[in-house]
Write a structure and sequence with these properties.
The protein is an alpha/beta fold. Helices cover 44% and strands 11% of the residues. Helix 15 links the parallel strand 7 and strand 8.
Length: 516
């Protein structure tokens, strides 16, 4: 078969590439993010047959230095095909837009991505393109859709909230599914009654501990978040002589990828300070508008997502705008119900994507929606979930936590637990009203036995592996062991390829292939 195109974005991917090579997998292309993965030369030694690309240069639709330029234009059929995905792609590209290029330039770059990927796909005709999770950097999202159009197989590594459990999906809406009868038939009765028997326990973790919960508690610690944007902390940093070292030194940061520029440390510090002051203003506004909720009221709980991130763009599709999402829920509520909305604590953490913090106006618009109440960050999310009529999220963990607590979960995208009994996906205003009416009437309920059976089945369906560095450090697995586990899962998929679809499809054939 032809070779594999692997998009590497984390240090752990080096071991995955090495393990796949030991299994005899041939690589056509490796896309390497050097600022996080390590030198491209290491990957070139692992797979000397591969064309090794530089992610930083790809953000600007450029191949490595010395490569021939991509001067091809984009045909009208390709532009039409990509049009439905353009808005989401531009939002993803803006994450790397440190110099705030105008949207017209971003759109021109979007079309250059299309020209670049078409040229590379035609050159290599890979058997499969492997993505680390949802493609969400912009350039990779264009590649994903052009692969779907041309019939090139896509494999997406995906994580779950189960300990050290991952799976491979073929496309963005591909999530495991079993019907209720099949779930219960596969689980012993005594185990099926325990909703947490498999939901938080992997093969190597200590009983009752979940690596994702541990990591989230660390990065979402509210007191630490407040301290790091407080005036005393900022002054302490300013008075530290180490803070002022190397102000003229270029910084390796992909935030400036669209402009292909390495900012000086002085520019980096200045942007960082501006973002932290903007975050302080947002937090003060949120605290002023937030209230302590009345848990005796009938309410739906909506947990906001940290943004910008893949969990909303592109995973949320047209529901990525959380203000409109809150309005949709609020307008669909049964009479007398409220919508409690709580911000993600990480939104106020020292921002990594400087100009992308929420403005105070975001919270003011949110609080102005009738029947919406912002909830204080000091109020525990677990209590809000446990006393709610239902808990909603785009694709986050809130709905998964809700069904484990016996509460209906509402999602708007395609999370891995989408088909867990007790979870419902909203597609439009009508389905939102119908679902909330069913919740109010008591006809949409959670059966803890089927919830536990789903967790058990997922635990068996998934393979052991760690998706990120933080989880890997908690797991007890070495980088090499983790690479072997992920490589084994990918190799199994590669050994059973999908039916071949020819390249250079007509527009009608491409649309038909994408739909199938």
């Amino acid at each position: 078969m032809n070779g594999v195109f692997f998009m590497c974005s984390l240090p752990l991917h080096r071991e995955v590439v090495a393990a796949l090579k030991r299994r005899g997998v041939k690589f056509d292309v490796l896309d390497v993010a050097e600022n996080s993965c390590g030198p491209r030369a290491e990957y070139a030694r692992l797979a000397p047959e591969a064309e090794v690309l530089d992610s930083f240069r790809l953000y600007a639709a450029q191949l490595p230095e010395g490569s021939p330029p991509i001067d091809d234009g984009v045909d009208e059929a390709t532009i039409r095909y990509l049009a439905p995905f353009e808005g989401a792609t531009l939002q993803m590209m803006d994450r790397r837009n440190g110099d705030r290029a105008p949207v017209q330039e971003l759109r021109e770059l979007f079309l250059r991505y299309a020209a670049l990927w078409r040229k590379l796909l035609d050159r290599h005709r890979p058997a499969a393109v492997v993505f680390h999770g949802t493609p969400h950097q912009g350039h990779d999202f264009v590649l994903y859709h052009l692969c779907r159009r041309a019939g090139v197989r896509t494999l997406l590594l995906e994580r779950t909230f189960l300990n050290e459990r991952m799976f491979v999906r073929n496309h963005l809406e591909d999530v495991p599914r079993w019907d209720d009868a099949e779930l219960l038939a596969s689980a012993p009765d005594a185990e099926a009654r325990d909703a947490t028997a498999y939901a938080g326990r992997g093969s190597s973790s200590e009983a009752g501990k979940n690596h994702y919960d541990t990591l989230n508690r660390r990065i979402n610690d509210l007191e630490e978040i407040r301290y790091r944007i407080s005036v005393p902390y900022l002054l302490k940093e300013l008075l530290d002589f180490r803070y002022w070292r190397g102000l003229r030194t270029p910084v390796t940061d992909s935030f400036y990828g669209v402009a292909q520029r390495r900012p000086t440390m002085f520019e980096f510090r200045r942007a960082d300070w501006g973002a932290r002051w903007a975050t302080r203003r947002g937090l003060r506004t949120y605290q002023r508008l937030a209230v302590r909720p009345d848990l005796d009221a009938r309410y739906v709980y909506l947990a906001l997502h940290y943004q910008p991130e893949r969990t909303t763009v592109p995973d949320g599709g047209r529901f990525a705008d959380q203000t409109n999402l809150a309005r949709l829920l609020a307008e669909s509520l049964p009479e007398g119900w409220r919508l409690y909305v709580r911000e993600h604590p990480r939104q106020f953490r020292r921002p990594l994507i400087f100009p992308k913090v929420r403005s105070p106006g975001f919270y003011e618009r949110l609080a102005a929606i009738p029947r919406v109440e912002l909830v204080s960050l000091d109020f525990p999310a677990g209590e809000l979930i446990g006393r709610s009529q239902a808990a909603a999220t785009v694709t986050g963990s809130t709905a998964w936590e809700a069904v484990q607590a016996g509460r209906p979960g509402i999602v708007f995208g395609f999370p891995w637990y989408l088909h867990c009994p007790g979870v419902a996906r909203i597609d439009d205003a009508a389905s939102c009203r119908d679902l909330l009416s069913a919740v109010a009437a008591g006809t949409f309920r959670v059966d803890l036995r089927t919830t536990a059976a789903f967790a058990r089945r997922m635990n068996e369906h998934c393979f052991r592996g760690c998706f990120t560095e933080g989880i890997l450090k908690l797991s007890g697995l070495s980088y090499q062991e983790n690479g072997e586990l992920i490589a084994e899962a990918l190799d199994r998929r590669l050994q059973h390829p999908l039916p071949h679809v020819p390249y250079h499809l007509s527009t009608a054939e491409a649309e038909q292939a994408a739909e199938s």
